[in-house]
Amino acid sequence: MGHIASIPRPRLELRDLQVVLAVAAAGTTAAAASTLHLSQPAVSRALLAAEERLGARLFDRSPRGLQATSAGEQLVAGATRLLAELVEIERRARAPVARPTRVRLVCECYTAYHWLPTALAELRTGLPNLDLVLAVEHTRSPVEALVAGAIDIALLTTGEVPPGELATQPLFADEIVFVVSPAHELAKKPTLTRDDLRKARLITGETPEAETRWFVTRVFGRGPRPGRAQRLPLTEAILDVARAGMGVAVLSEWMAGPHLGRGDLLVKRLSSGPLRRPWRLAWRREAEEPARVLLAALKSAAPAPMITGKR
Predict the structure, then answer these.
(1) Three-class SS of the chain
(2) What are the residue boundaries of the HTH lysR-type domain, all occurrences included (predicted)?
(3) Rounded to two decimals, what is the model's pTM?
(4) pLDDT tens digits for 279-299?
(5) Which of 56, 88, 86 has the alpha carbon at shortest distance from 74?
(6) Pair type for strands 201-204 and 167-180
(7) Cβ distance 108 to 158 under 8 Å?
(8) Taking a C-beta distance cutoff of 8 angstroms, is the pair 232, 241 a contact?
(9) CB 27 within 8 A of CB 17
(10) What is the pLDDT of residues 129-163, one digit of tens each?
(11) 305 pLDDT more than 70
(12) 195-to-86, 120, 221, 270 alpha-carbon distances in Å
């Protein structure tokens, strides 16, 4: 708070301003007395005392009642603004100061970071007291970080949540697709089978172990696992390898969609049907309120499917 050199000491009091405004509005001390819930003599004495303190006549008598003098008009105009401002100051002073709610958030799958910041920016506009922090250092172990209290909320795909310790709610699902070069041996097949993928070189991102287990279980079941697989850190590198005909890229539709349409890459799906990956929001119990707000925002802000066609 800044230093106040001296406290202002006006000659008039708050009661004086209220009396002057009431008299100016009513036109007589008798009518003003009714408004102020005072007696008529008390209003007359208060008005006289205000004039003496100010050192100026505020009203003149006329056949139509009390008329404000030039000094009175200036005081009425200023008092109206001053009292209205005082009421607003009191309102703000009574209102509790809302402290920012700090929420640490992480996503299990890095693909969410391509659209999540935009959703969070819109969320901050509507909830200025919500301080959202992306704790990307916990991307590979979000559930463990939640249990330990290192983060408050996690956007999960396949991580297993301990029963009873955390709250969870489903959000949406994206589709995992397979991208190949038109020159690849699988390019002419309308859909891909498990055997096709077992024989192919699969090019994936550096996904968490939980998501890798989910993918292998969903695609290959209890049968033999793929013999060849390669992990690359960048989406562009994964697609470049696929574009060169050196393997089958395994990507979320969100990541693959923007790179299709030029004819140098084709998208394939499983013959057994779309491989949909579920997304959930998980949070610690003490983060219930911001988690519910974030849940609603994410449900409406999630990107639409980017790859059209039979799904």
Answers:
(1) CCCCCCCCCCCCCHHHHHHHHHHHHHCCHHHHHHHHCCCHHHHHHHHHHHHHHHCCCCEEEECCEEEECHHHHHHHHHHHHHHHHHHHHHHHHHCCCCCCEEEEEEECCHHHHHCHHHHHHHHHHHCCCEEEEECHHHCCCHHHHHHHCCCCEEEECCCCCCCCCCEEEEEEEEEEEEEECCCCCCCCCCCECHHHHHHCEEEECCCCHHHHHHHHHHHHCCCCCCCEEEECCCHHHHHHHHHCCCCEEEEEHHHHHHHCCCCCCEEECECCCCEEEEEEEEECHHHHHHHHHHHHHHHHHCCCCCCCCCC
(2) 12-69
(3) 0.61
(4) 899 999 888 888 888 887 777
(5) 56
(6) unpaired
(7) yes
(8) yes
(9) no
(10) 778 788 888 888 888 999 999 999 998 988 888 88
(11) no
(12) 78, 41, 12, 11
* Alpha-carbon gap, residue 74 to 79, rounded angstroms: 8
Tokens 């802000």 belong to: 301
**Cα(159)–Cα(278) distance, integer angstroms:** 10
Taking the C-alpha atoms of residue 24 and residue 18, their distance in angstroms, rounded to an integer, is 10
Q: Which two tokens stand for residue 151?
A: 């983060």
How far apart are alpha carbons 301 and 122 in whole angstroms? Answer: 9
Cα separation values, 111 from 114, 180, 234, Å: 6, 20, 11
